[in-house]
Amino acid sequence: MKIIRADVIVTCPGRNFVTLKIETDEGIHGIGDATLNGRELAVASYLKDHVCPLLIGRDAGRIEDTWQFLYKGAYWRRGPVTMSAIAAVDMALWDILGKAANMPLYKLLGGASREGVMVYGHATGRDIPEALDRYAEHIEEGYKAIRIQCGVPNMRSVYGVAKGNGMYEPATKGAVEEQSWSSEKYLDFVPKLFEAVREKFGFDTHLLHDVHHRLTPIEAARLGKSVEPYRLFWMEDPTPAENQAGFRLIREHTVTPIAVGEVFNSIWDCKQLIEEQLIDYIRATLTHAGGITHLKRIADFAALYQVRTGCHGPSDLSPVCMGAALHFDLWVPNFGVQEYMGFPKEALEVFPHAWSFDRGMMHPGEAPGHGVDIDEKLAAKYPYDPAYLPVARLEDGTLWNW
Ligand code: CS2
Ligand code: MG
């Protein structure tokens, strides 16, 4: 089966998404997600101008060889733009393979390892009472794992909290939003938030929290230690992970589990973290870490060290990534949890999908391939609308990690 066409579709049904569509001479097509929040057009161009022409005439079934060809053949390895582009090709080719075999992707990977995929939702509030109300709603909806983020008293803004009553969406139109940050205020406040959750709801739900790269290693160690009584499922991205050895310091002081990796692109970004057992969950995801072919490699490597998966799943990864991730999660032996932030209604219409949600558990469905398609006519009604992620500054104006 030969590839005869490859097109890039950029659309903004509620938020921007980049999708690659590959067509074959047997009339089967597959799609892959290539969305890189705030830098979408770089990946669209990488695909359109440099990758799509190389795909024409290739055997659609040679997925591994195509991956190696795009990775090694570019000479310039890794990086978010390259790896998102390779991921989109890989996802689309696995989709095609599934359709050709008339099998859902999870069966091609080796079959289901569990009945369903546990997902965590986002409970956010401007203050503790509001965050607890959202937490209660998630329990009502059947969530078994819930992430909580909350406004910090006397801080102008905080990461992860929805504006108004809508869904949480960090990217904004126009100028880059500048938020302010104080690690001291945050560290004093956040244990009180977890205490309030455990006091009100007990220990029946898995409690998660995202630090979003805001602390230094010693501060993260202090946070992890101070919240041990609340038994978090994980504290996410406690400090930036470019310096992987920095996590040794955190590990020496606390048994609070650590999840890292939503900004990683390859196995090399997490090699030391996994090998030295400095983390408990790896958050690398299909779209940004080279697709199914590469994430399988990361997960198998992680399994040697009892590190489990916890794939990134924000609304800025498209419903295509969500579908493919659920197949991956249903199969992967060392599964931990999957993030599920939900999508704007328009996005769910543009991307018809076989996946479903039921009381905190998700299933990819039985459609051949990854089970997600794109309605191109509808997609064309939502032109690209540039938006940027915010930045964070310390209270004295110093640019900090967002
Ligand atoms: C977050 C993301 O889901 C998460 O854990 O860290 O919302 C992240 O900020 C966005 O994906 C950035 O595009
Ligand atoms: Mg995160």
UniProtKB/TrEMBL annotation:
PROSITE patterns: MR_MLE_1, MR_MLE_2. One of its GO terms (biological process) is amino acid catabolic process. CDD domains: RspA. Pfam families: MR_MLE_C, MR_MLE_N. Gene3D superfamilies: Enolase-like C-terminal domain, Enolase-like, N-terminal domain. GO terms for molecular function: magnesium ion binding; mannonate dehydratase activity. SMART domains: MR_MLE. Residues 129-257 form the Mandelate racemase/muconate lactonizing enzyme C-terminal domain. This is Mandelate racemase/muconate lactonizing protein.
